[in-house]
Amino acid sequence: MDSTPQASEHTLVTDTAQTIAGDENSPRRAYETALELTAGTRVETDSLGSMPIPVDAYWGIHTARALENFPITRRAIYNYPDLVRALARVKQACARANAEIGVLSLEKARIIDQVCEEIVAGELHAEFRVGVIQGGAGTSTNMNANEVIANRGLELMGFEKGDYAQLSPIDDVNRSQSTNDVYPTAIKLAMVFGIQRLLAEHKLLTASFAAKGREFSNILKIGRTQLQDAVPMTLGQEFSGFAHTLMEDYDRLSESIPWMNEINMGATAIGTGITADPRYAEAVLRHLIDVTGIEMETAPDLIEATSDAGIFMTLSGILKRAAVKLSKICNDLRLLSSGPQAGFGEINLPARQAGSSIMPGKVNPVIPEVVNQVAFSVIGADATVTAAAEGGQLQLNAFEPVIAHSILQSLAWMTNACYTLRVNCIDGITANVERLAMQVETSVGVVTALTPYIGYAAAATLAHTALTTQASIADLVIDAGLMTPEKVAQVLSPERLSGMVAMTGPLTLPVIPPAG
User: Fold this and answer.
1) Of 3, 26, 356, 493, catalytic
2) Tell me, which fold does domain 438-498 have in CATH?
3) CATH for 30-74+105-174?
4) What pLDDT sits at residue 447?
5) Cα dist from 185 to 14, 182, 313, 381, whole Å
6) pLDDT score recorded for residue 352
7) Does 120 have pLDDT greater than 60?
């Protein structure tokens, strides 16, 4: 079973763009570069003709054609390890199902199964070379997987790579399948892996905000609306509010997993199941559940499931919501820490690096800023997903590759953003207690708490006087004989001003679902 890394063992998700082969600024094609770097070649043939393939490559002619055709992003699918692992799990389940129903020999199924386990364990990922954005609705990705599995299988069987008469990428590895059911199933599974990893980091970030809420529970400050002074609250309430905001998005992300687990395996080309045994869909579903540990179900209408990309829009929208809300929190952190002398200056963010090449001593809020930029990217990715989903035609959406790229990148970047925000920012935040106390003591916002006792008109008059004379609201109320000193002290106590008793109990955090 695949597993999400333990929360204490964070590993940055590796989706950084890398050159497929050679210098990414070179005009040479990736396929040509690969040939130049190899010690020899083998010849493979398809319906379009023959091509030389690097002798040691586990990929074959279909991958080679994709390397020539799609040198677009220079971002190969090996940059998305969740997708590579998901493809291996799908192929593994297919081999087991085909052996069970008797359309693939047990020996070939066992070899395919073994290679898929190697891929899940992290081997052979560098052989998944095609660009993630490609024409053909993911056919090149599917064939890249088929060829790598077949050629590694041939190696295990004692044959030369490319000897497809012994183990074929299409007739054996791709048996009973089409790209049109394999690819969407694999990208959904990869997205589930990504969601689980994001949930783990998201939960840790929520816990950090909650911990700051408890740490700052007795520190009064002035709340603001429309950037103007409003009424008192505690700094702890503000940070607990951030935590609860994140909890809501955790719930929405968790709810998306069951929606992603409806698959169309057995649909083959358009949903009719052509070339697949009638027993295959049930068998492959059962085996896919077994190898992933994730509960799935076959879509009730395979034609609809093969053509519709609505679920990807739903997940992308949830990611955008989470990104926007996290970005808003980062905006607040930048405001609250602004200054440090001429701004709000209420909190101190950890100093992570020198902030200027010209202004000595300047330190910038670089961690919230980078999270803001991740959010901007997620917002843009959602627009891409929406356009791609709308662009589908008839029985297939040809644009699932860009959907996969957009969502998998958003999941990876959001995961990394949650990690760096927690470790490099939130855990190290401190409060400027004296500055906050002074702001509360001199703020006219406290007069709102007195309105039930002296009335709105009198409170407004006192507020105006306090602003023009810089006098204390408490002193003005007492001097006017409107309330006794004891009553003023009671009404303006921290507990009454903040509307709550100081927080001491833990914030209840959600439970992370088991990883697939």
Assistant:
1) 356
2) Ribonucleotide Reductase Protein R1; domain 1 (1.10.40)
3) 1.10.275.10
4) 75
5) 22, 5, 16, 21
6) 77
7) yes
